[in-house]
Amino acid sequence: MLDRIRRAVPERLKNIIRRSAPSADADFWYNAWDSIRRASSGIAVTPESAMRCSVFRSSVDGIASDLATIPLPVFRDEAGTVPQKAKDHPVFDLLNKRANPEMSATDARTLWQAWKYQYGDSYSWIETAEDGQILALWPMHPTHVTVLRERSTRQLYYRWRPPNEPQKILFPWEVVHHMDLSEDGLVGRKLIQLRLNSTVQVIKPTNLVADRAATGPTSGLA
Questions:
Q1: Count H helices, E strands: the chain?
Q2: Domain parsing of the chain, residue ranges
Q3: Confidence (pLDDT) at 170
Q4: Residue 188 has what DSSP assignment?
Q5: CA dist., res. 94 & res. 105, Å (int)
Q6: Other residues' Cβ atoms within 10 Å of the Cβ of residue 94
Q7: Number of Cβ within a 10 Å radius of residue 126
Q8: Per-residue confidence band for 95, with pLDDT thresholds at 50, 70 and 90
Q9: pTM of model > 0.85
């Protein structure tokens, strides 16, 4: 049944609202970071170029790494009893030991946090068995995911385009979505979008130092 529904979704998504691409006349504060924004200095800043700034990268890495080491307890809530920690629950191991066969929980959670600060959102595909048991959490790069909403039913979908693979349409219960500050509750705003000029002020002196090291002293400079 679920497979039949999934095959019907792409046809229905022809009539959707694409949250990652607001209309051209939308207010600036509601615009998505579609490609490149420029600060008042005229320097182009993207999530990728910001991470080439050592100060910005170190800040994101430090915060993400620290948060990833905090234990995430799982509780079992049974009627008429006080919730108890459930370390024997499969989800506990996914969040605290190994997120998937290729990544430890700490590495995956560090990546999720870093992507959230860099792009405003982080996504993971929830791999499940036929009986519904959660098997693994697989990070999905934010640039490969688009949040969609069907106009008629208001149903939310995630379009995932993994490199060199067919696109996948996922339902909300198949995705773990962490978002930063959001204007609509669907997609987050990028940290560099909120602090664009401050980021540029850090990037520009760094670039000048690199240029000076490469070209040597110039006239008028000691």
A1: 7, 13
A2: 2-209
A3: 94
A4: B
A5: 6
A6: 23
A7: 16
A8: very high
A9: no
Dihedral sign (CA 111, 116, 119, 123)? positive
**Placement of tokens 């497979």 in the chain:** 3
The single-letter DSSP state of residue 29 is G
Amino acid at 132: G
**pLDDT at position 63:** 85
| Cα diameter, the chain | 80
Residue with token string 């980021």: 199
Cα–Cα distances (Å) from 146 to 113, 152, 175, 206, in that order, read 18, 19, 12, 33
Which tokens is 33 given? 């970071």
Cα→Cα distances 142→11, 23, 25, Å: 24, 21, 24
- Is the torsion defined by CA of 104, 105, 108, 111 positive or negative? negative
pLDDT exceeds cutoff 50 at 200: no
Residue 59: CA atoms inside 13 Å, Cβ hemisphere, count?
A: 13
pLDDT 10s digits, 41-66: 555 677 777 777 777 788 888 888 88
